[in-house]
Amino acid sequence: MKTYKKGILPPGFQASAISCGIKRSGKPDLALFFSAKPALASCVFTTNDILAAPVILSKTHLKNNNRFQAIIANSGNANCFNAKTGLKDARETTRVLARALGLKQESILVASTGIIGKRLPLLKIKRGIPKLIKGLSSPGIDKAARAIMTTDTFAKKFSLKFNAGAKEITVCGIAKGAGMIAPNMATLLGFIFTDAHITQAALNQALKIAVNNSFNCITVDGCMSTNDTVMLLANGAAGNAKIHGGKNLDLFVRALSLACLELAKMIVRDGEGASKFIKISVKYARDQQTARAVALSIANSNLFKTAAYGENPNFGRIASAAGSSGAGIREKDLKIKVSPLKKKEIDVEVALNQGSASAVVYTSDLTPEYIKINAAYN
Fold first, then answer.
1. What is the CATH architecture assignment of 277-375?
2. Is 328 buried (19+), middle (13-18) or exposed (0-12) by CB count in 10 A?
3. Is 185 a residue whose pLDDT tops 60?
4. Under DSSP, is residue 158 helix (H, G, I), strand (E, B) or coil?
5. What pLDDT, in 10s, does the model give residues 330-348?
6. Contact 213, 50 (CB under 8 A)
7. Catalytic amino acids?
8. Would you list the DSSP string of 295-330?
9. Which fold does the domain 2-269 belong to in CATH?
10. pTM: predicted TM-score of the whole model, two decimal places
């Protein structure tokens, strides 16, 4: 398996991005991803009760269609919590794009990220669509990765190639996220593209496994957004024997999981104001659910996160957070090991002496810069 810390779109995919004026900064804020041939889609969305309009519309399109050719995504405006106008604007965006590309409206997925509660500047988006289409290219993935950023400080891209039989398959993913990061998913958008020839059931299974072990294992501040979305398109252009199970499905799951995990780690490293990358491993739990609950309790403890920032070895904060998880931990069984806090990357190992299950969660420290960023975000 060959891996790349850059975006390498599989054959048949193109991307583009422009600045259409959503962001006052003039930075790119509108991205388009296009598949020359209809592709299977699998998606995972936020579990927040308040859903952004693009999440609602994309869910509807997924119910009514099984082949997709485009994703349009904007940053700077979440298109959320704005009553009926949000869904109307999302529909109009897909209608105009579908007409310009000669596609069915239902073959387009849509995503947004940014400020909640403000109406989407629909006219700016509609005016930008022709330029967006004209700029489609394989290298356009790099600009698209920047166009989906909000408080991110760097674009997050990862690609890999692996062989399924005699055919080479490519997986390319980009993501955004820095704040409001918490399991399940986060304030993140993730777009993943592959030329694998695969069944819908296998694609859904692979994404569920990959997301559960990556984007659902990160937390920066314990806050969940209304727009969290991961979209996976598979256009079958690799020409491999159709993946439905067995060895080739295992290979695909490994590849997709690696891509998602690398992107998830980038999100944690780019956590708003973060100065430390923290890996929390819980071992010897009675089951994985318990191990995960303990890891998340520690990862979301503001006391622990500020101690990590201050390089203060107050491990009582870890013990306290673990004990408040509801895992039924006995003091005599709890073992804690922490790597030096002065390093940029910190490993926390917690042993429970309950069983054989384990879990890993990734987080960052909590710094004064996080407060500054979010106090001024509007």
1. Roll (3.10)
2. exposed
3. no
4. strand
5. 999 999 999 999 999 999 9
6. no
7. 187
8. HHHHHT-HHHHHHHHTT---THHHHHHHHTTSS---
9. L-amino peptidase D-ALA esterase/amidase (3.60.70)
10. 0.92
